[in-house]
Amino acid sequence: MTELATPGPTMDWDAGGPYKLHQTLGILGRGPGDATIRLTDSTAWLASNTPAGPATLGISQHNNTLTIRSWGPGAEHALVGVPGLLGAHDDWSHFDSHAFASTLPHKIREARRRHAAVRLPSTGRMVDALIPAILEQKVTAREARRGYAALVRNFGSPAPGSGIHPDIPTDLMVAPTPPQWAAIPSWEWHKAGVGPQRSATVMRVAGSATGLERLASLPAVDAAAKMQSIPGIGVWTAAEVTQRTHGDADQVAVGDYHLAAYVGWALAGKAVDDAGMLALLEPWRGHRQRVVRMLQLSGFHKPTFGPRMTIQDHRRH
Q: Were both Cys, which of 59, 207, 226, 242 would link to 44 (CB 3.0–4.6 Å)?
């Protein structure tokens, strides 16, 4: 308990220009119920597993300087990854160049002008990104995130310092470790609304965790290809992961229930399928994820037609 409560090292990080903490890290949270992260405009609290044990990071922003505090056995290890987490390796210079920007639609250029302080984070934490992405396969985001929140709450651990240090949110949690994921009984997956196909994929990921974590050191395209060697992980899941673990500026989530139609309406004024989306984004290959991110930040909403998908709740069946 003492090791979990004792503050670890601190560091300051200079963003080197305009910076928005909550928009940069916002992609990491899996809905408001995700207890592993808490964000406001100027503060962020994150809890994660590291090879040295669990860690809590508290990040506060003042102008373009960020101060990072740490707690837990994994504190020093977590601090090493902070620059990547905050987007230090994310280079927008080509995207922002006049030659490239002049090829972009006005709505994207305007979104980038208004959101020039956004970076793409690189967490380097493969399993922590993979498992919630697997839970979101072929179900609504709301349903998946409800299940992930319940599983973290029931089988995770309180974040180091939580409930002890007055600044740390009392509900901040560390997600289960791979052995803890693997030990979850089948009926608990069912109670969380996770079917056997997805829970089996999580079990395979938990069993391959050590090898999967090594993928963080590879280029994003290679990491995506190698993780797809695990049955149950396809191109959509791999893209969802590398966007977060590698700050992948290019890969888009092919197979997403909403994304192709959204991009189609934004760029062509009509719904398109995945092939149509990729064709629309092809002129900006290398930055396709940046284009999608700016579309999402532009405030554009595609037309809605008919009723929304009904969320099926099988937890009591």
A: 59
The tens digit of pLDDT for each residue in 236-261 reads 999 999 999 999 999 999 998 889 99
263/261 Cα distance (integer angstroms):
6
Rounded to whole angstroms, the Cα distance separating 207 from 230 reads 11
- For 128-164, the pLDDT digits (tens) are 999 999 999 988 889 999 999 999 999 999 999 998 8
Q: Share the mean pLDDT of the chain.
A: 92
What's the CA angle centered on 316, arms 155 and 171, to 5 degrees?
30
- Classify each residue of 2-12 as buried b or exposed e, where b means 16 or more C-beta atoms within 10 Å of its C-beta: eebeeebeeee
- Count Cβ atoms within 10 A of the Cβ of residue 88 and give its class: 0-12 exposed, 13-18 middle, 19 or more buried: middle
For residue 182, the model assigns a pLDDT of 97
Asked whether 216 and 223 are in contact (CB, 8 A), the reply is yes
Sheet holding 53-62, edge to edge: 11-14, 65-71, 53-62, 43-50, 37-39
Run of H or E including 70: strand 65-71
Q: First CA to last CA across the chain, in angstroms?
A: 40
Cβ neighbour number for residue 137 with a 10 Å cutoff: 18
What backbone torsions phi and psi does residue 50 show, to the nearest 5 degrees? -130, 170
Amino acid, single-letter form, for residue 207: G
Q: What is the mean pLDDT of residues 62-90?
A: 96
> What is the value of pTM for the model shown?
0.90
> In this model, does residue 165 exceed pLDDT 70?
yes
